[in-house]
Design brief:
Length: 135
């Protein structure tokens, strides 16, 4: 498996509008786009920083993975996402290494990407997302 790039760092927020307006004022940065990703139960905004993104995610409802994360831990770092060339190869490698996979097969992410999450347990307590960009 080869990690190609740091695709994004994701921060869970209660209020996406408010978070975006803070980033606009503090860092003079505008979102590239906003998108509802039903599959993950979030609305996300992507802010381009160099070759990577900052992803702000707001849960669509409290009873969702990100909703429960916010209730338990509050706002903050949610996951780190790496770009991979072939997500199936990467998942097979991680499985062989004994990593606990949240997604055993890839699913649909934003921007037409295919994604899969790797459980924080046994991974330095950090949720990792693998991203394969559309060809
Ligand atoms: Co993400």
């Amino acid at each position: 498996m080869m990690l190609l790039n740091l695709d994004h760092v994701a921060i869970a927020v209660h209020d996406l509008d408010q978070a975006l307006s803070e980033y606009r004022r503090r860092y003079l940065i505008e979102p590239l786009y906003r998108e509802v990703v039903e599959d993950q139960g979030v609305e996300e905004a992507m802010l381009a920083i160099g070759g990577s993104f900052l992803q702000l995610i707001q849960p669509l409802d409290a009873d969702s993975p990100v909703g429960r994360f916010l209730a338990k831990r509050g706002e903050g770092l949610h996951h780190i996402a790496y770009t991979v060339a072939d997500i199936e190869v990467a998942l097979a490698h991680l499985k062989a290494e004994g990593a606990r996979l949240v997604d055993k097969t890839p699913r649909k992410g934003g921007r037409g990407t295919r994604i899969a999450f790797v459980h924080p347990q046994g991974g330095n307590q950090t949720l990792v997302e693998l991203v394969q960009l559309p060809r």
